[in-house]
């Protein structure tokens, strides 16, 4: 059973930030806050007002409404990627580059092995031809020796 959504809000004096979440910690995470805004009294649960419906329509998304700036305009907050997300993107890009380098190195090594196999096949063919020629000569000598006996 899904947790019941509650609507939480806090204000910096210029904008009100509202989010529908199942708990206070999830609201704090949506706001990107590292301090407990509920403990300081800056954030609280709301049940009515202009932002409640907007928040309930898109749970987990922060709704930003102007109070002293852009008064009355309410819109989803466009958050900048946090440091952890940027770090993860950089790490992912580095891992993809490592994977491409690994694949390129493998392709080069496979090409080198293919060339070496061709050289060994040529050498084996030369040895087989020499063996066949020497064998034929010895068989001829054996046949000649038997004919004399």
Structure commentary:
The protein is an alpha+beta fold. The chain is 56% helix and 16% strand. It contains four helices and five strands, in the order ββααβαββα. A five-stranded antiparallel sheet has the order 3-1-2-4-5. β4 and β5 form a beta hairpin. The longest helix is centred in the C-terminal third of the chain and has 66 residues. The chain is rod-shaped.
Kindly list the characteristics that best describe this protein:
single chain, about 150 residues, alpha+beta, five-stranded antiparallel β-sheet, 4 helices, rod-shaped
Helical proportion? 55-70%
| Count of separate DSSP helical elements | 4
Distance linking N and C termini: 103 Å
Q: In angstroms, what is the radius of gyration?
A: 39 Å
Secondary structure elements and pairings:
Blueprint: E1 6-11, E2 15-21, H1 24-31, H2 37-40, E3 43-46, H3 52-57, E4 63-66, E5 74-76, H4 83-148
Antiparallel strand pairs: 1-2, 1-3, 2-4, 4-5
